[in-house]
Amino acid sequence: MTKPLLQVKDLRISFAGKEVVHGIDLTIAPSEKLALVGESGSGKTITALSLLRLVQNAQVSGTAVFQSPKGEVELLGMPERLLRGIRGQDIAMIFQEPMTALNPLFTIGNQIEEILALKQGLSPSERGLAAIKLLADTGITEPQRRAQSFPHQLSGGQRQRAMIAMALACHPKLLLADEPTTALDVTVRTQILDLLGELQRKNGMAVLMITHDLNLVRRFADRIAVMENGVVVEQGAVSAVFANPQHAYTRKLLDSKPTRDVQEKLPEKPTEGSLDPAPLAVMRANNLRVSYPVSVPGFKGWFKTGEFVAVQGASFDIPAGQTLGVIGESGSGKSSLALAALGLHPSQGDLSMAGMAWSRDAANNKAIRKAVQVVFQDPFSSLSPRMTLESIVGEGLAVHRPDVKAPEMQQRVLQALLEVGMTEAQFPGLLQRYPHEFSGGQRQRIAIARALMVEPQLLVLDEPTSALDVTIQKQILQLLQRLQRERGLSYLLITHDVDVIRAMAHQVMVLKDGVVLEAGPLAQILDSPEHPYTRKLVSAQF
């Protein structure tokens, strides 16, 4: 039988004497696609990084035998000088967040050429041509121009493709892909998966994919290894594990798809002069337009500025107790729409919240700011690291109700945290803790509690679950559904995840390049889409 390309035995990883990976065994055959699956903190990423000894201050034991083109090597015990010859050459890695993995001071072409110079010794002219070809192979349009671009000038999908081009520059035998599609739109995610599969077949490369997305695993991988708390609890062929999972944790992951549990019947009231019931709109927009100033090239730019229109002619109503789901790819105008709804960016057309319109005078917006609150995509960056939970959650109430005394404020903060499932019994000294002391899902609960403190009528949810594991995602969606039923909250839900839309939305609006392509009830838009772009979005969902 053919020897495994990589055989890991009894891998143990410790920090300061505390073991976090407990004697795992993994095998990857040549040209095989293995998915390492588990929630955040399960040990997936640190396992992959430790194979190339990229984890600082870690004590690593066990063996990792790799069949390199020059012969069999033991990765965990070989000298650093020799291991540098393996990294990037025979084993390459795609990191989770390309924006932080790519150097912002160098062009994409420079960064690919650096690898070709170090690993293959190509001349400057050869490196330049090879870099352009690698970008073209990954499907980047205008590769010659993109090679001269800096990372911030590329979209998320283009940056991920550039990372893949860098990883494949030396035709590695093994590719370690750490959540390569997590932050991408559903259509771009499909493209990246198809690209990885095509390049894997073309180059005869094995892939170790680290992910928490089981739908992605079903589509891409040959075998799956499930990790929980630093232990591999189940391994096997993808078809066998998905059809008949043996471990309770695997069953839990498979059962974590968002489920719909919303109040379908909407609150109604008679319209003026009519006996027919009609939903009361909490937010209403008519012919909404959002634009940004841009510089004009040439001497004309001395005298005037141009304009980029991010949202054009959007109209919608959000009734009380209802969710409007806005779906589209990056650059479609979703975030600009959310900024306008929050009064954080000027807009043209009619936009009212609870019968009030945003004013250019900030002092006049206090009442409307109390009525509409926001929950951001990444709770770690949206919560101040210097403030305690008591200050974070109570901040909005302190602004809108300065008459509330400290003891009552503390009780209200505790009540808001209790409402999102966090108590002093679970977390002793809860109010004096800081955001870094909590997990991603717990931080998102804190962000929701902060938004609820001023008793808003509408929450703008900007990708509220995209940064979370599937099990935590399901918990947060269930929490939002319960709060909507109990409080009659309305949601403006911004997302690219069709499953989240199916679980939460009553009405759906599809945006592309700032234009509303179609809008209507959930079943009409997702089950019988009229526009080809909507059909593409729905079919791209795994």
Write up what this structure looks like.
Strand 4 (59-68) and strand 5 (71-74) form a beta hairpin. This protein has three domains: 6-103 and 171-254, P-loop containing nucleotide triphosphate hydrolases (Rossmann fold), CATH 3.40.50; 285-354 and 457-542, Rossmann fold; 382-455, no CATH class. 41% of the residues are buried. The strands form five sheets. Strands 6-7-8-3-9-10 form a six-stranded mixed beta sheet, sandwiched between helices. The chain has a six-stranded mixed beta sheet with strand order 18-19-20-15-21-22, sandwiched between helices. The two termini are 35 Å apart. The chain is built from 21 helices and 22 strands. Residues 273-278 have low confidence and may be disordered. Helix 16 packs across helix 17 (440-452). The protein is globular. By secondary structure, the chain is of the alpha/beta class.
Corresponding CATH superfamily of the largest domain? P-loop containing nucleotide triphosphate hydrolases
Total E-strand runs: 22
Task: Let me know the largest β-sheet.
Answer: 6 strands, mixed
Q: What's the CATH first level of the largest domain? A: Alpha Beta
The appropriate CATH architecture of the largest domain is 3-Layer(aba) Sandwich
Could you name the ranges where pLDDT drops below 50 across 5 or more consecutive residues?
273-278
CATH fold category name of the largest domain: Rossmann fold
Structural class: alpha/beta
The proportion of residues in beta strands is: 25-35%
Rounded average pLDDT = 87
Radius of gyration: 26 Å
Counting structural domains, the number is: 3
